[in-house]
Specification:
The complex is a heterodimer.
Chain A: H1 7-39, H2 57-63, H3 66-97, H4 104-112, H5 119-141, H6 154-182, H7 186-194, H8 199-210, H9 212-227, H10 231-236, H11 248-258, H12 262-289
Chain B: H1 2-33, H2 38-43, H3 55-63, H4 66-97, H5 101-113, H6 122-131, H7 138-161, H8 167-174, H9 179-190, H10 192-208, H11 211-216, H12 225-235, H13 240-274
Classes of the chains: A mainly alpha, B mainly alpha.
């Protein structure tokens, strides 16, 4: 449907319909992104009006920075465990909730609740649980594992982060898996039952292959969210104890806004962008190749 | 066979109920402790309070300047979401209905930009908007939300508008409607279900967002609800009763909306993520 004949009338239509959004999008997302790449080659400290061009110095500093790499490896470990646990639990819950038992809606509503609440609040809630409730339960039943707050021990604080993440996102992914289960044609399951397939065979050869699209979406979403997590990290552990749980987002934030090394912070952020883009795009590419027609 | 299924279903319900209690337990703990004073919380944080003491709520309400924070959050969320919806529906419409090279390029450009995480933009964003004096202002924040919300909303609308048949619009054009009238009178009402989806996704995102407002809004009277909870909790970490009441005050509005609209919210989030 092209009713605009010449360039000027086309331009007019474009500006009326898409002009404001295009302008906001370019000035809020694209301009800072490009300017950010430029900033990685400067030594801007956040205050001074001028900044010098320093070439690849910032990138070299980032690559030689042990703290950055330990934060990056910690993030990889966190992403790995969170993605696996979130998806296994979400899949399991969805499986139970689509097997025709009573009260499905009630359970679904409950499991989904943490997703409605911001990460800052969720982190604070669990800070109270880990440092008060669990310690109290530990004393009450004499459980050494809870005798001290998990948030004061580097290894346990890491697992505290994973637990809160699993609690936060599994309900959301469960909803997507439920939709996936609902889309599996009934006839296929019935046909398998008539052929005498046991439930393990049914799961492995019919349900799992047909659920690949749901896995693609859920793993993509969890990868993206866990790589960039900041809120829960800030309110639950604030990177502590002794910076042992400082995930990469928080590290970038601190480098830029607390240490005032904006150029280095932006170099770290840009590196992070490349990693997340490569990981998520290749994940989507490989899982889509595994999809089958039902 | 029937009996075996019954036993299996009972096990499933038991497993689900246990997991359900674990999921709800944190909220329950915050709720019961929000009515207790510090001494009672330290003595036994699991005890159900004997009476509904609202002292903590009154303290939290005034100390975190709840009214201000709530109104700020409300204004920012409402204006951002309405503008994202109207502007991105119009943008997606012109992208679908005018098959120009430039439109195809812009659409692709917006989709590609969805891979950029906020953390990769926040530093230059602060520098650019700080240097032109657009910080510490909620309207700047609304403007940024429009830019950040553009890609996903345009993408979802684009997919839906493609499936609307052209005939209605052609008839309207022949009747002498301008493209803008055609869009608002005929197309936009047809997009209602998609609009609900986008509204739900964006309301949840903007209402709960922390990092962007924490960078843009500086003075205390500008704070949104997550920001004021953050500073309040930081100040009263030791006063557990206040802190718990503060958390409850921030959670209650969301839970009320969720109880009324739970079906639409879950379906909206689902449709938004499958796209």
């Amino acid at each position: 449907m092209n009713i605009e004949k010449n360039f000027l009338s086309k331009l007019k239509t474009y500006l009326i319909f898409a002009g404001p959004m295009t302008f906001a999008f370019l000035t809020v997302v694209i301009l800072p992104f490009i300017y950010g790449i430029y900033l990685t080659f400067t030594d801007w400290n956040g205050i001074s009006a001028t900044h010098a061009f320093v070439g690849l110095d910032n990138y070299l500093q980032v690559f030689n920075d042990k703290v950055f790499w330990s934060s990056f490896l910690l993030t990889l470990r966190y992403v790995l465990f969170s993605v696996i646990l979130v998806n296994v639990i979400a899949f399991f819950l969805a499986y139970l909730l689509t097997s025709g038992i009573k009260g499905q809606n009630f359970f679904r509503t409950g499991f989904f609740t943490p997703n409605l609440i911001g990460g800052i609040l969720l982190g604070f809630i669990w800070q109270f649980i880990f440092s008060n409730i669990l310690v109290y339960i530990g004393e009450l039943f004499n459980l050494p594992i809870f005798s001290a707050s998990w948030l004061t021990d580097p290894n346990k604080a890491f697992w505290a982060l994973v637990i809160v993440t699993v609690w936060q996102y599994s309900g959301y992914m469960m909803v997507i898996y439920i939709a996936g289960f609902m889309n599996i044609p009934r006839e296929l399951i019935e046909a398998a039952d008539i052929d005498g397939a046991n439930s393990y065979y049914r799961l492995k050869n019919i349900i799992l292959p047909l659920m690949v699209p749901s896995f693609t979406i859920c793993i993509f979403l969890t990868l993206q969210r866990t790589f960039m997590v900041y809120d829960v990290n800030l309110s639950l552990t604030n990177g502590g104890p002794y910076k042992s749980t400082e995930l990469i987002s928080m590290h970038v934030y601190n480098t830029a806004f607390l240490s005032q090394q904006y150029g280095i912070g932006q170099a770290e952020a840009f590196f992070l962008f490349l990693i997340v883009a490569i990981v998520t795009l290749s994940q989507v590419y490989f899982s889509q190749r595994m999809e089958v027609e039902s | 066979m029937q009996k075996k299924n019954g036993a299996l279903n009972a096990i499933k319900i038991v497993v689900l109920s246990v997991v359900f209690l674990l999921y709800i337990f944190p909220f329950f703990v915050v709720l019961i402790n929000s009515f207790k004073d510090r001494k009672d919380i330290l003595m036994n944080p699991l005890m159900i309070p004997a009476k509904l003491n609202l002292n903590n709520y009154i303290e939290a309400f005034t100390k975190m300047d709840y009214t201000h924070a709530f109104v700020n959050s409300l204004i920012i969320t409402i204006f951002s979401v309405i503008l994202i919806i109207v502007l991105s529906a119009m943008t997606a419409y012109i992208f679908v209905r005018r098959n120009w090279k430039f439109n195809q390029f812009m659409f692709f450009f917006m989709i590609a930009s969805m891979t950029i995480p906020f953390q990769a933009i926040m530093i230059p964003l602060v520098k650019i908007y700080g240097s032109i004096g657009m910080m510490n202002n909620k309207w700047s924040l609304v403007y940024m939300y429009i830019g950040f919300g553009a890609s996903l909303a345009v993408f979802i609308y684009h997919g839906f508008i493609k499936s609307i048949p052209l005939e209605l619009e052609e008839a309207a054009l022949i009747d002498g409607c301008s493209p803008l009238q055609t869009f608002f009178k005929i197309v936009f009402p047809l997009l209602k279900s998609t609009t609900v989806t986008i509204a739900i996704l964006d309301i949840l995102w903007i209402w709960n967002d922390f990092l962007l407002p924490s960078l843009v809004l500086i003075s205390p009277e500008q704070r949104t609800l997550p920001l004021s909870v953050f500073y309040f909790y930081g100040t009263y970490t030791i006063e557990y009763g206040y802190a718990m009441a503060g958390l409850m005050l921030a959670i209650i509005p969301i839970i009320i909306v969720y109880l009324i609209m739970q079906r639409q919210i879950i379906e909206g989030v689902l449709r938004g993520s499958i796209k």
